[in-house]
Design a protein that fits this description.
Keywords: Glycosyltransferase, Transferase. InterPro entries: Glyco_trans_1, Glyco_trans_4-like_N. One of its GO terms (molecular function) is glycosyltransferase activity. By secondary structure, the chain is of the alpha/beta class. It folds into four domains: 158 residues, 3-Layer(aba) Sandwich (Rossmann fold); 182 residues, Glycogen Phosphorylase B (Rossmann fold, 3-Layer(aba) Sandwich); 187 residues, Glycogen Phosphorylase B (Rossmann fold), CATH 3.40.50.2000; 176 residues, Glycogen Phosphorylase B (Rossmann fold), CATH 3.40.50. Helix content is 40%, strand content 15%. It has 29 helices and 27 strands. The strands form four sheets. The protein has an eight-stranded parallel sheet with strand order 14-21-20-19-18-15-16-17. The longest helix has 18 residues. The radius of gyration is 35 Å and the shape is elongated.
C-alpha cells in the first residue's frame, strides 16, 4: 500500500502511478491511498486497474484520517506500507503500527527541506523510526541529507533511481505543436518542465531568458507546468519585457509531444531537486539539457556529454549554457543522442521497477519477518559459509531471571558452543540474576541485571534500550515463559534499532490444562519479531491450531525449527553401567525404570506409578527410580505406599550427577501431560536407553515408536505398563532400541549442532551471511 498526500501533478506523484502498475503481479498486489484530494494523476492509477482511494481529509482532520487509514490497512492487509510526504509519513506509519502491518518504508523524493524541521517533527520522526524498516531514496546525493539532516540510520537507506520507458519517447523532431502554443515553428525553443513552485527558481530562468533574448531575440521560452507561483512569474516576465518571448502553457498532458518540439530543456532549481522525472523524459526524447548542479542532477546529466551543468542561482551561467547549445545545433544533437543512450543504459523504467522490487523484498527481510511464514529447519552453517566475516553478531539473551530450567540450561550450553568469531553472546536479566547466573559468569559470559525500583519501574525499558545501544546489540532473544522479557525485550530491541529480535518457544500442549505457551498479546504482536524459534515441527502445528499463531497478518512471523541439544559425550561402557547401578543400589537382575523430572503436576508421576503397579505383577524384577525434587514429593511418597510399590521405588532427590547415573537404568520413562522437547529424553538417548513416553509435546518428533522407544497416549497407565513389560521381557530389544536412540542423539541432538543452527539463523537475519 502506497500512502501519499495526494496524486497531483509532480515527479514524486508520477512515480507512484508508474511504479505500482508495473510491479510483478505474481509477487505484488498493490493499492494506493491519498490522504487528501485525489489529484490530477489519480485517474492514471484507476485506468491501470490499481485500487486507489482518496480519503479527502484536511490537515485539521488528522485524527479522522488516521482512523480511515487504519481501516483501509485492515481491509487491504498489506505486508508493506510505503509512505511519501510529511503527513503521509506521520499518519501512514502510525496507522501501520495500529493496524499491525509488518513492514513500513518511507520513500524520500527530496534533498532538503524548504525550512529546517522543528523539534516536534524531529521527535515524531525519532519515535517512528523503530517501526520503519527502510528509507528509500531516488539519488545517491540524498544520503547525506537523510543521515545528517533527518537523522535516519545509514544502514536503513536504499537508493532506487527513477526511470522512464524509452519506447514512449520519440527522438525525432516534430515542431507541429508550436503554432498551437503561439510560437513560430522555426523559432529556437527552450522549455522548462516543472511545477511553478519557489524551489524550482523559475525567476532565475526568466532572468537568464532575458540575457538569451538580448543575443537571440527570436528565441522562445516555454514554461510548462502550473503552480502557486504562476501569477508572480507572469509579472516578472512582463517586467523583463519577455511578453513576446515567453509562453506559460499551464499543465499539459502531452509532454512527450512538446519535448519533441524543443531545442533544449532547462532546469533551474536551487534546492531539493533529487532525480527529476522531467529531466529523464527530456533525455529519453533526445533533448540536451542545461541544468543547475543540485541534488541528484549530476548523477543523471554528464556535463559536456549529455548537456551542461551550471551553479544554482547563476543566471549568467544558465544563459551561457543555453546560448552555447542554441548556437551549435550539431553539438546539441550530439548531446541529445548521448542523453538518450544514457537513459537506455542506466535509467529505464524496467530497471527502476526491478530495483524497487528488490528493495521492497529486502526491506521485508531486513527487520522482520523473512517470510514465508511456514515451518522450516535451519541447517547448520558450514565453515565456508562463515568466511570473510569481520565482526561477530552481538546476541543479547533477555530473561526475567535465570531459573534452573530447560531453556536456561539449554542456552548456557548453546553459549558455550557458539563460535566467538561468529556470535558474541551475553545475558541480561530484568528482575534479578537468579541461580544459574553464576554458571554463565564462570563460563566467561557477561551477565547484567537491569536496575529497577519496584516491580513496575517504567525506567527499566529506557535502561534496557541504553544497554542494547551501548553494546551495539545486533540480535535480541527472548523465551516464551519470561513474560517481562517478552514485552520489554522486544520493544527495547525495536527502540534501540537492533537488527533482529527472536522469540523462542519451549513448551506446548498447555491448552489441555487450561494454559497457553504464548500469551495472546504475544501472538497478536508476533509481527514485531523476526522469527519464532521452535523445538520441532509438531510445536509449530500446535501453536497455529491451538494458539492462533499465523492466523492473522499481525500474528505471523517466520517459524524456524532449532532442536535442543546436549554434549553427547562418548557411549557409556559396561564399567559406567556397573558404577551407576552400584550408586543406585540396584541388584544385577533388577530391571530399572527411571524418570528424571521435577516432581510437579506437569510430569504426572502418578500415571507412571500406576503403570509400575500394573507391570510388577508380571515383572517382579522391575524397580522404579524417581530422580528429581519438587512440591509433590510428600504426596508421591504417600501414593507409592498406597499403591504398594514403595518397596520397589527409590526417591533419589535432586542429583547433580544424573548423566553418570543414567547408564545404570534399563529404560527411561516420562509420563508428562505436556512437554516441549525435554533435555532429559535426549540425555537418556545419549546414554543408550530406550525411551517410553507419553505422546505429547515434541516427543513424537524425537522418538520414533518401535525404533528408539515407545510412545503411549497421555494418561494411559495400562499402555505404559504394557510397554515396560515388553522391554523387561526382551532385554535384547531394549538394548537395540537404546542403540538406535544413541545413534539418533549423535546425529540430531548435539549441542554443537544447535549452536550452528543459531549461528546460521542470526547470520541470515542480521544480513551477515554470504
Amino acid at each position: 500500500m502506497y500512502v501519499v498526500p495526494d496524486l497531483g501533478v509532480g515527479g514524486a506523484e508520477r512515480h507512484v502511478t508508474t511504479l505500482l502498475p508495473r510491479l510483478d503481479p505474481q509477487r505484488f498486489t498493490s493499492c494506493a491511498v491519498c490522504i487528501g484530494e485525489p489529484g490530477a494523476l489519480f485517474s492514471d492509477l484507476v485506468d491501470s486497474s490499481i485500487p486507489a482511494t482518496a480519503l479527502r481529509r484536511t490537515k485539521r482532520q488528522m485524527v479522522r484520517a488516521l482512523v480511515d487509514l487504519v481501516r483501509e490497512m485492515r481491509r487491504f492487509r498489506p505486508d508493506i506500507v510505503i509512505t511519501r510526504g510529511y503527513n503521509a509519513e506521520t499518519l501512514g506509519r502510525a496507522a501501520a503500527f495500529f493496524a499491525r502491518v509488518p513492514h513500513v518504508v518511507v520513500w524520500v523524493h527530496h534533498c532538503g527541506d524548504p525550512e529546517p524541521r522543528g523539534p516536534l517533527r524531529r521527535l515524531i520522526d525519532r519515535c517512528l523510526d523503530p517501526i520503519t524498516d527502510s528509507y528509500f531514496g531516488v539519488a545517491e546525493a540524498q544520503r547525506a541529507f537523510m543521515t545528517d539532516d533527518l537523522g535516519y540510520p545509514p544502514e536503513k537507506i536504499t537508493v532506487v533511481h527513477n526511470g522512464v520507458d524509452p519506447s514512449l519517447y520519440d527522438t525525432t523532431d516534430d515542431r507541429s505543436v508550436l503554432p498551437e502554443l503561439g510560437v513560430p515553428a522555426d523559432a529556437p525553443t527552450v522549455g522548462i518542465v516543472a511545477a511553478l513552485r519557489p524551489e524550482k527558481d523559475h525567476a532565475c530562468f526568466l532572468r537568464a531568458a532575458r540575457r538569451v533574448a538580448d543575443v537571440r531575440p527570436d528565441t522562445r521560452f516555454l514554461v510548462i507546468g502550473d503552480g502557486p507561483c504562476r501569477e508572480d512569474l507572469e509579472v516578472i516576465a512582463d517586467a523583463a519585457g519577455l511578453r513576446a518571448n515567453v509562453v506559460f502553457t499551464g499543465a499539459r498532458g502531452d509532454i512527450p509531444r512538446i519535448l519533441r518540439a524543443l531545442d533544449l530543456v532547462v532546469l533551474s532549481s536551487y534546492s531539493i531537486e533529487c532525480f527529476p522525472m522531467a529531466l529523464l523524459e527530456a533525455m529519453a526524447s533526445g533533448r540536451p539539457a542545461v541544468c543547475t548542479a543540485v541534488g541528484g542532477v549530476p548523477e543523471m546529466l554528464v556535463d559536456g556529454v549529455t548537456g551542461r551543468l551550471v551553479p544554482a542561482r547563476d543566471e549568467r551561467a544558465l544563459a551561457d549554457g543555453m546560448l552555447e547549445l542554441l548556437d551549435d545545433p550539431e553539438l546539441a544533437r550530439k548531446m541529445g543522442r548521448a542523453a538518450r543512450e544514457r537513459v537506455e543504459s542506466e535509467f529505464t523504467l524496467h530497471r527502476s521497477v526491478e530495483g524497487a522490487q528488490t528493495a521492497l523484498v529486502e526491506a521485508a527481510r531486513s527487520a522482520g519477518i523473512v517470510r514465508p511464514a511456514r515451518s522450516g529447519i535451519v541447517r547448520p552453517a558450514r565453515p565456508t559459509e562463515r568466511a570473510d566475516r569481520t565482526d561477530p553478531v552481538r546476541l543479547t539473551l533477555v530473561l526475567d531471571q535465570t531459573f534452573v530450567g530447560g531453556v536456561e540450561v539449554l542456552m548456557l550450553g548453546v553459549f558455550r558452543h557458539l563460535d566467538p568469531s561468529v556470535v558474541r553472546p551475553r545475558l541480561v536479566c530484568l528482575r534479578e540474576a537468579g541461580p544459574l547466573a553464576e554458571e554463565y559468569r564462570r563460563a566467561g559470559f557477561e551477565v547484567e541485571v537491569v536496575p529497577r525500583s519496584g516491580r513496575y519501574d517504567p525506567r527499566r525499558l529506557t535502561r534496557l534500550v541504553r544497554m542494547l545501544r551501548t553494546d551495539r546489540t545486533d540480535a535480541v532473544l527472548v523465551t516464551h515463559h519470561h513474560h517481562a522479557a517478552l514485552a520489554l525485550g522486544r520493544l527495547a530491541a525495536r527502540l534501540a534499532g537492533t537488527r533482529t529480535n527472536l522469540v523462542a518457544a519451549h513448551d506446548m500442549d498447555l491448552t489441555s490444562i487450561g494454559k497457553r505457551c504464548l500469551p495472546r498479546w504475544v501472538v497478536s504482536t508476533l509481527f514485531l519479531s523476526d522469527a519464532l524459534v521452535l523445538l520441532g515441527p509438531r510445536q509449530g502445528d500446535y501453536l497455529r491450531c491451538e494458539e492462533g499463531v499465523a492466523r492473522r497478518p499481525w500474528s505471523r512471523t517466520r517459524e524456524v525449527v532449532i532442536t535442543n541439544g546436549i554434549d553427547i559425550g562418548e557411549p557409556p561402557t559396561e564399567e559406567d553401567r556397573d558404577r551407576a547401578r552400584a550408586a543406585l543400589g540396584l541388584s544385577p537382575d533388577a530391571f530399572a525404570v527411571g524418570i528424571v523430572a521435577r516432581l510437579s503436576h506437569q510430569k504426572a508421576h502418578q500415571v507412571l506409578f500406576e503403570a509400575v503397579r500394573l507391570a510388577a505383577h508380571a515383572r517382579p524384577e522391575l524397580q522404579l527410580l524417581v530422580i528429581g525434587g519438587g512440591e509433590r514429593e510428600s504426596e508421591l511418597r504417600s501414593l507409592a505406599d498406597d499403591l504398594g510399590i514403595s518397596g520397589r521405588t527409590v526417591f533419589t532427590g535432586v542429583r547433580r550427577d544424573v548423566r553418570a547415573l543414567l547408564p545404570g537404568l534399563d529404560v527411561s520413562a516420562l509420563s508428562s501431560v505436556h512437554e516441549g522437547a525435554p533435555i532429559t529424553v535426549i540425555e537418556a538417548m545419549a546414554a543408550g536407553l530406550p525411551v517410553v513416553a507419553t505422546e505429547c509435546g515434541c516427543l513424537p518428533d524425537m522418538v520414533t515408536d518401535g525404533t528408539d522407544g515407545f510412545l503411549v497416549p497421555v494418561g494411559d497407565a495400562a499402555a505404559l505398563a504394557e510397554r515396560l513389560c515388553v522391554l523387561a521381557a526382551d532385554r535384547s530389544l531394549a538394548r537395540r532400541l537404546g542403540a538406535n536412540g544413541r545413534e539418533r542423539a549423535e546425529r540430531e541432538y548435539r549441542i554443537s549442532r544447535t549452536a550452528r543452527s543459531f549461528e546460521a539463523l542470526l547470520d541470515e537475519l542480521t544480513g551477515r551471511s554470504n
